[in-house]
Amino acid sequence: NSMRVPVVGSLVRGVPRRGSVAATTSRLAVACVAALLVMPAAPAQHAVTGGSPADIAAIRAAASTYREALAKGDAAAVKAAWVADGDIVDGWGNRLRPDDLAATDAGPAAAGRPRPEFRSSETELRFITADVAVEDGTVDVVLPGMQTSIEGWFSALWVRNGGSWKLAGLRESERPVAADSDMLADLDWMVGEWTLAVEEAAASNGAAAPAPQPATTMSVRWDAGRAFLIREVRTPAAAAEGDSASALEVHQRIGWDPVVRRIRSWSFSTDGGRSEATWFRDGDSWVAVQTGIMPDGRQDSVVNIYSHDGRDRCVWRILPDALDVDDGRPTRATWVRTPKGVDR
């Protein structure tokens, strides 16, 4: 199953379309949040207040098991580490349940996938009661294919449940980074007309290659005051298999947010979906960490990486799902600039 144009078009706003094409969710950002709980092995980095040696060791063992489950993509084991009514609030304010981490069994398809790298330090474990403990700490997350780490804080709630220690809550926030509004000008290369060239997967088991799909196009321009980049993406109706006849169009504004002091984007699509994203530089690439609301109200997340070659091509990478089955969707495509004077 190759990445079809309808999926590509909807992923621009960070909300993969559900239906006949690539129906699985993209939960890498969810898994990153859930994996912030990584207790360091070095005792000097881990302060403890209260608690018996046996309980401290049990929580460390539970955290180690949880970390191993994340590394393997074992969705069932990840879910088992949580109490049934546990929840996660990530750095973008999304509230998630353990079922969101393990809606499907990861299975062998997840083996060998790139995994985020986590570097935890300065953790502190405090026992509130004999059956409740809070762990606070800092963590750096390096997503696959990136060089720059995302730095954050986490606070995890451990509870004794059925004779074992399990997670009951996790709260995460991103640490401030040095940035200024002039960084928005670094996205000027995006201005222009583009066409998406999807790198189709090779046909397997003797199956015929999929029929060519109408091209997804993108137009990018500055607004009148050069305060926002306006990005409009259009996927032709003929590309949709089993969906409505209308084309999918996404309107996005990228600008400097003085409140959080970061470059942010806000996207709206004609099917009723919407999303927000935080943008930052990673070497020669731009990374957009998006969270979105689908037309039916469900939340979803995706991490997009844009690598411009300095001329007329931009490689677009979509990080693979961390805890989901492989739906066969490639995670790479290329935007090609349309020469001026050429009618698309």
Describe the structure.
- There is one protein chain.
- The protein is mainly beta and 344 residues long.
- The protein has 5 helices and 17 strands.
- It has a 10-stranded antiparallel β-barrel with strand order 8-9-10-11-12-13-14-15-16-17. The chain has a 7-stranded mixed β-sheet with strand order 1-4-5-6-7-2-3.
- A hairpin with a 7-residue loop joins strand 5 (132-142) and strand 6.
- It is elongated, with a radius of gyration of 21 Å.
- 37% of the residues are buried.
- Mean pLDDT is 74; it is low at 1-44, 104-111, 201-205 and 321-330.
Write the layout of secondary structure elements.
Blueprint: H1 5-11, H2 28-34, E1 46-49, H3 53-72, H4 75-80, E2 82-89, E3 95-96, H5 98-101, E4 117-129, E5 132-142, E6 150-161, E7 164-174, E8 192-198, E9 217-222, E10 228-235, E11 248-257, E12 262-269, E13 274-282, E14 285-293, E15 299-308, E16 313-318, E17 332-337
Parallel strand pairs: 1-4, 2-7
Antiparallel strand pairs: 2-3, 4-5, 5-6, 6-7, 8-9, 8-17, 9-10, 10-11, 11-12, 12-13, 13-14, 14-15, 15-16, 16-17
Order of helices and strands: HHEHHEEHEEEEEEEEEEEEEE
Strand pairing plus helix content: what structural class? mainly beta
Radius of gyration: 21 Å
In which order are the strands of the major sheet placed? 8-9-10-11-12-13-14-15-16-17
Which stretches of 5+ consecutive residues score pLDDT under 50? 1-44, 104-111, 201-205, 321-330
Shape: elongated
The helicity comes to 10-25%
| Largest β sheet strand count, sense and barrel closure | 10 strands, antiparallel, barrel
Overall mean pLDDT score?
Answer: 74
Q: What's the number of extended β-strand segments?
A: 17
Strand content: 35-45%
C-alpha termini separation: 27 Å
Number of helices, counting only DSSP H or I runs of 4 residues or more: 5
